[in-house]
Amino acid sequence: MSTESKEKIKILIENAQYVCLFIILVGMFIGTMYAHGASIFIAIPLSFGLIFLMNYIIGILIALRKETRPTAASFNMGKAPWWGLYILVALPINYYTVHMFNVEFSELENTRNLAAEKQTFINTLKTNTTGKIEKHFESQSLALYTDYQKIASHTDNATAIAARYGLTKLRVSSIHGTTAEELQADMRAALKPQKDWILKRITPCLELNEDTITVIEAHNFKQKLAVDYLDRHLDLIRDSFRTVASSYPTIGLSIPDSSEIQKLRDKKSAIDSPSSSLTSNPVLTLISLLLINGIILLPVFLSERRKAPPKSDKINTVTTY
Fold first, then answer.
1. In whole angstroms, what is the distance from residue 158 CA to residue 190 CA?
2. pLDDT tens, position by position, 142-170
3. For helices 223-236 and 258-265, what crossing angle results, to 10°?
């Protein structure tokens, strides 16, 4: 083979080495971002550090395949230690890169479905709760209007009505309006502080931040954070909502069963758990492992294998190109 051809092969192998490792770098970086809550302070040093180390090891493995004169770069250790080191470095690389494949092709959609289930539960409870509160106070305003008419006929009085509806005697006495609609509107205004107080206590449990929820459908590594946010609201519903609802028995707010909430709460996303995602889809994991290691070792397989002449003192020794 001519010198020119050898140089072309050498350049091809070097380029293949860098391209293959870059592909794995991207996959590992994405997998690390998913696993560690989109923390670049963990993802960057971990992924880049391991890939740079793997690049060095691959260079040594290519040199060992040529079986020429040893250099300081390979420490003249032979093949076995370097393959052992390759396995050691490849383990975390495979761990996070396979996780990336599992998330992109399976777990990401599972997490979105899980988040949608929890979000639907919270929004349904919110709709039912606010609807019952609105209905209750509308009924109260109508009943107050009926009782208020009795003051004129002296069959009821402002003091009794105030105690019955949680108002002050002064507020009942100051209800005004020239028509039935105006009277009822002022009665709704009189009861509004009570309604607002109940809603104020209920809102922290049921009001979701839409900006936090929309990341579920985005592709920004924060889907698990959104699920955690929904889980915190489920905890509030389980712990605080029950207390608030029990404080207003006349409204008849529906209180979810604790076991139902806990069952939903226990449904977890595996986006930040590579170990769980590895076992959740074994077929995809196996295919990913074969693909990853095939890409990493492609430059080694492409490199020219040369044997030293028999009885030469160069046998089983290495050099770098």
1. 14
2. 999 999 989 888 888 999 999 999 999 99
3. 170
